[in-house]
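Dear support,

I submitted the protein below through the web form. The confirmation email said the job was done, but the results page showed an empty box. After a refresh the structure appeared. I'm attaching both so you can tell me whether what I see now is the final result or a partial one.
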Amino acid sequence: MSQRTTLGLLLLALALAAYYLWVERAQPSPEQVRARSTRLFADWDAAGVVRIALERAAAQPATPAGATATAASPARVVLVRERAGAPWWIIEPVRAAADPRVVEGLLGALQYAERVDELQRFDPAALGLEPPRLRVEVGHADGTRNVLRIGRLEPSGRLVHVRRDEEPVVVRTSARLFERFEVGLPQLRDRRLFDIPHWRIERVIVQRPGEALRLVREGSEWRLEEPLQDWADEERVEQLLQAALQLEAQRFVEAAAADLERYGLHSPPYALTLEGAGQQQTVLFGTPGEGASATRHARRADRSEVVVVADTVFAHLGEPAEQWRSRRLLHLGREPVRAIEVRAPDGGVRARLERQQGGGWAFAVPLAEGADAAAVERLLGELQALRIETVVSRAPEALANFGLERPLVVQIEQRGARHLLRLGKQAPRYDAYYLQRGEEPSVLQALIPEAERLLWLYPLLRERRLTAFPPAEVRRLVVERPGQEPRPFVRLAEGGWSTPGPRRPDAAALERLAAVLGQLRAVRFVSPPAAAAPEQLGLAAPWLVVRAWRAVADQPFEEIELALGTTDEAGAFRARLRRRPLPASGEPALPPWQQLPLFTLEREVVDALDATLWLPDPQALRHGVELQGAVPAASSASATPLAATPTAAPAAASPPTAGARPALPAAPAPPGEGPR
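What the results page shows now:
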């Protein structure tokens, strides 16, 4: 194939593609063709309509009492708009804003009206078409127009006779078309006083005698700008906006526009302005309505008509500025919190939490240690939910009366912002405390349930996962119970476990025990006042002690000791965990224990720790093992675990009896023990 032929085929393909895109693709589908063929107006463009004129053969009956001041709907109503998308206005018989929802309904009825059948021969007068019962004239932006004459209904009431423009046929269509256009002037007028979408409102201004109340939206919250500068009560602002957007005219007072003084609207003392979406809409409020309770005369500033509205919005306009203050203690917005710091009354930093790059949390003070991210987020949520109960004093004479001369300070840091709460002594009301916020001098009172959690931030919010290692790293286990000789269990190099004596250990139970030790998680941490008395927690003489020697590649052995005490009021067991590295043989004495804060464990975890570690039927098991070398004691310097080699069991060996959990009653929670 020559290059010229190839180029010719390519040009032909491009031409066919262009023909499809510009000709074939632009053609309507068969379904669209069928729909257009049955439509009353085949090529209807509702967006291009700029004028609608409705002419009735005679004036309609009087509208319901109170709907309007006119006695009857006029024979002619004309609606116009400047361009597509602009607001609709009624220009005959009055100058007034039209309800866009009603007008769009009229245009939609014309667009989707369908031909049921046609009459070639007809008597226009007999069908109510000379003169027509209703004449609808529609003007388009391009200067063209359509005229639709609507006649009488069929006896069944389901169809109506219509004639479009000067067509030589009469069409019968659904009677719903006539019903849609059977609207009077009151239904066509826009009764809404505000039509800015709720989510687009950015500013609210309440004008009242002597002052203006200004509110501005900041993200999802509202701030007071005048006459006070503070966060606004979101619930109160929301109530005002809902009432304003639902405000509608109950009736129009046509003659009032020439006598505004009579209705208190010449220089009204009260006005409400909403700004947003590039619009500013102001409604003026005048005197109470006549002959109806809880109503008031009102007028939109950009319209001439006076209306009577319900008093729902006006009831909010006179509320004191103080009531518009937010009752929330903290307004953190959407910006993520970067740090939480608690300072003791002496000024020292008691605890500091910092958000990590991955989104988690960690303590920087008192120790560099992980924090429970879920618990931190719950704390932030609880702090944001705190609300001011009352303002105790705007200018306190003595902070000592409220315990605020040496307060507990909570500082929350965000990018470019810092929030301070100074917590004083407890108020007479249960769970209420005196406090100050930021640099404000006012003394506030707020409900702060379990406020002591702020004091014990570190033990309560630290990471609850205590250990995290695989069970294969556990090389030796020792379980101690009061009155019983400790018995060590050693992991064999080829797998399984060994122990001195004739009884064979249950390898599966020991693996489960090692797995539990490697995944310990505290239910809660015991706060320092309670931890200062271990005898009250049953930890001075624990009923179960589990020791483990853990080996990690290229690292020294680590000794772990877990002791269990009494149960708390929730049924969780109080426990103590200590850890220390074990030096190699011949090195100096053991280092001191690293003791973690006291904590509690779930009963299910304790049941796994207190399991039977021996296989059943000891009479059938007479072979045993002996350990080479000395078993490392807790105070021994040579604590490196040694491998065990199976040997013949001593004839006089007698298996120890497994210890049982002591039946200890649940001890009452000591004062100050941290909450769950």
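Response: this is the final, complete result; the empty box was a page-load delay. The mean pLDDT is 81.
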